[in-house]
Amino acid sequence: MTSSRKIHRLFQEIIGISPERFSQVIRFQSSLMFLDYNSSLQGYEITNDFGFYDQSHFIRFFKKRMGKLPSFVKPSDFYNT
Predict the structure, then answer these.
(1) What does each C-alpha distance from 3 to 8, 10, 12, 16 come to in angstroms?
(2) Disulfide: which of 1, 53, 69, 79 matches 57 by Cβ 3.0-4.6 Å?
């Protein structure tokens, strides 16, 4: 039987980041795509859908990764055009 620690270590060796970090990246990318396709929505409207505790958690998480608040991000920020 393989321990969870070994699976965690193998995941990190193969993927290059921890499973927790990978989950954060996927969650963040999903929220960005959702906001891009639903630009009229505000951050608080998607917090539960993407596993954030509340609106302030989502905003802090978003600002830390993008350097901007969600309300100041436009679709062109996501693409190299």
Answers:
(1) 9, 11, 14, 19
(2) 53
